[in-house]
Amino acid sequence: MSKTYFITTYGCQLNVHESEKLAGVLKQRGFLPATKLEDADVIVFNTCAIREGAEDRVFGNVGALKKLKRAHKEKIIAVCGCMTQQKAKAEKLYEMFPFIDIIFGTSNLYKFEEFLDKKTKRLLAYDEDFNLLGEDMPFYRTSGENAWVNIMQGCNNFCTYCIVPYVRGRERSRASADILKEVEKAVKDGYKLITLLGQNVNSYGKDCGEISFAELLTKVSEIEGDFKIAFMTSHPKDLTSDVIDVVANNPKLLKEIHLPVQSGSNRILERMNRKYTVEKYLGIIDEIKAKIPNVRITTDIIVGFPGETEEDFEKTCDLVRRVGYDGIFAFMYSVREGTVAEKMDGQVPENIKNIRVNKILNLEKEIKGKLKNGNN
Ligand code: SAH
Ligand code: SF4
Ligand code: F3S
């Protein structure tokens, strides 16, 4: 009987796509997906570090495997991803849970196969070199009609609240020729939606003299076949008119833009190191709406960033009303070790963050209700 695997993914689309790569390695070795975690011979947790909650879930879920591993010593338990790219967290997991066999970070993803073969008892692989990121790894797509296609890795922006630049390294774009080849294959294989992925897709090419993101979108759209193109994520400081024009004029592009604003207060945006103002952001929104009729605009918002007053928060509510988003991902600020905001004064109490996040979600519902009624 074939051996099986089960992968739990905690993070963003990038993380999901990396789980597809881990699955690709396992499939290539003859493993099949298990329907239940308990049944699998190889159990993988692909973790996320973006907020404390995501990390707490990993501790809880891995901890729960103690009995299973005691009863089935032959099972392999691996923990990888952004959380274990932080040395202290990787070491803590290693010490807390002696039944974990393999721990490795995002920079070591491409070594997964080698780790599976290791005969040593336990393995903790920590590495800060992000040069090799598994571009050539096989993958097993698991997202229905959608094919995730990575176009770049890392982030240079260092928003003061965010762990990503620390666990993903600096921006590195893939060669456009490789991206186009991958899309061609995905389209041939029947995928109907190609989603181009990167932490900051508008910076595509800037690190290596490649074509611009707008040019990349156009080239991808020229691939023959019946498919649509989406992308994420755009940073407002880098979203340029040429990209908006491609989305507006190219029939292959989905008429959707995810443009995280984070806050509606210039004071907070500055403390977040976002490098744009509310006025600049609204200017981009107006341009998008003017050029793309019926566009779907979504955003991310953080409430309770250090120093956020009631007045700052009200400004975020005003911005939400002004834009009239089609979807909002609202988060309570979560302190991340090693970031600049960790040391900032004015940390906001949890109960206030809770009230604010609920207000944003209610506002979103209200807006959606109005939009619906308006259309009737
Ligand atoms: N690269 C993307 C998104 C990265 S993370 C971008 O810049 O837009 C996705 C979202 O998680 C962010 O947009 C932000 O809203 C949220 N986030 C990041 N760090 C956070 C933190 N420390 N606490 C709460 N939310 C956070
Ligand atoms: Fe994090 Fe900012 Fe980079 Fe997005 S742009 S990944 S929020 S540092
Ligand atoms: Fe989480 Fe890493 Fe993505 S921290 S949001 S899985 S890049």
UniProtKB/TrEMBL annotation:
- The enzyme's main class, written as a single word, is transferase
Give the record's keywords alphabetically.
Answer: 4Fe-4S, Iron, Iron-sulfur, Metal-binding, S-adenosyl-L-methionine, Transferase
| GO annotation, cellular component aspect | cytosol
Q: Please give the Gene3D superfamilies that the UniProt record associates with this protein.
A: Methylthiotransferase, N-terminal domain, tm_1862 like domain
**Pfam families the UniProt entry points to:** Radical_SAM, UPF0004
Recorded hits in SMART domains, A to Z, give: Elp3 (SM00729)
- Per UniProt, residues of the Radical SAM core domain are 141-370
Catalytic activity field: N(6)-dimethylallyladenosine(37) in tRNA + (sulfur carrier)-SH + AH2 + 2 S-adenosyl-L-methionine = 2-methylsulfanyl-N(6)-dimethylallyladenosine(37) in tRNA + (sulfur carrier)-H + 5'-deoxyadenosine + L-methionine + A + S-adenosyl-L-homocysteine + 2 H(+)
Q: Is Transcription regulation among the key words of this record? A: no
Q: Using the record's annotation, list all stretches that form the MTTase N-terminal domain.
A: 3-121
EC number(s) per entry? 2.8.4.3
What cofactors does the UniProt entry give for this protein? [4Fe-4S] cluster
Q: Which GO terms describe its molecular function?
A: 4 iron, 4 sulfur cluster binding; metal ion binding; tRNA-2-methylthio-N(6)-dimethylallyladenosine(37) synthase activity
Which domain of life does the protein's organism represent? Bacteria
Job of this protein: Catalyzes the methylthiolation of N6-(dimethylallyl)adenosine (i(6)A), leading to the formation of 2-methylthio-N6-(dimethylallyl)adenosine (ms(2)i(6)A) at position 37 in tRNAs that read codons beginning with uridine.
The record's listing under PANTHER family reads: CDK5 REGULATORY SUBUNIT-ASSOCIATED PROTEIN 1 (PTHR43020), MITOCHONDRIAL TRNA METHYLTHIOTRANSFERASE CDK5RAP1 (PTHR43020:SF2)
Spell out the protein name for this chain: tRNA-2-methylthio-N(6)-dimethylallyladenosine synthase
Q: Which organism is it from?
A: Candidatus Caccopulliclostridium gallistercoris
Gene designation per UniProt: miaB
